[in-house]
Amino acid sequence: MASASLQFFAFILALFGVFGDITATLLPNWKVNADVGSNIITAITQMQGLWMDCTWYSTGMFSCTLKYSVLSLPIYIQAARTTMVLSCILSAFGICITTVGMKCTKLGGDTDSKSHACFAGGVCFILAGIFGLVPTSWYTREIISNFLDQNVPESSKHEPGGAVYTGFISAGFLLVAGVIFCTSCFQRQQGAWIYPPKQHHFPSTEQESNEGYNLKDYV
After folding, report:
1. Are 15 and 96 in contact (CB under 8 A)?
2. Contacts 24+ apart (CB under 8 A), 52-60
3. Whole-angstrom distance, CA of residue 94 vs CA of residue 14
């Protein structure tokens, strides 16, 4: 029962991770303009994401421009696009697989099949967490290095936006969920190895018949 409840808790974490992963991928605020120096009072807020750049005016108007050209983008944005999409796909696969492998569901067949499915789903979550952690870390590094560069004008400096923090948190949820699913399967297999099922040995009929005779009867 404890293992089933722990798997259910990991499944909830994975759901939050999947939703957060998809949200971070689609949000346009991976970086926002920094309010520093003479740029501290501004009438607009500029945001840049993986797929579009948006501008929010003080009057309440909001406009976005899609990034149609892929080759013109910096390499870290291209890598972030690819890895975040892979993270969303792997996490979705993990949800489907762990639904079959969880102990609280009636899908997946026998115990061994459910254990293998649960382990495969955990691996998908771990890979999805790694694929989500790499682009957010790389993107944050580029923002910080650009912010600390003295040659960059203050109007062109940016800070990490909400999508970056959402990506970090989602990657953490997916990693924790994957570790829980994998360790729960290992504990189940280890218990089966330590406490193997008892085998009952029944004497054969030939041995029982031979025990009824004594060698002295043939001398």
Report:
1. no
2. 52/28, 53/28, 54/28, 54/29
3. 8
Is residue 84 included in any domain, yes or no? yes
- For residues 173-184, average pLDDT: 92
CA atoms within 13 A on the CB side of 153: 4
CB proximity list for 184: less than 8 A, separation 6 or greater: 3, 6, 7, 10, 118
Mean pLDDT score of the chain, rounded to an integer? 81
Residue at 35 is within a domain: no
Which band of pLDDT confidence, cut at 50, 70 and 90, is reported for residue 37? low
Q: What is the CATH number of the domain that holds 123?
A: 1.20.140.150
How many domains, in total, are found in the chain? 1
Give the C-alpha separation, 18 to 128, whole Å: 9
Domain of residue 148: give its range: 4-27+74-194
CB 156 within 8 A of CB 112: no
Cβ–Cβ < 8 Å for 184, 7: yes
- Could you tell me the two tokens for 140? 């944050």
Global confidence as pTM: 0.79
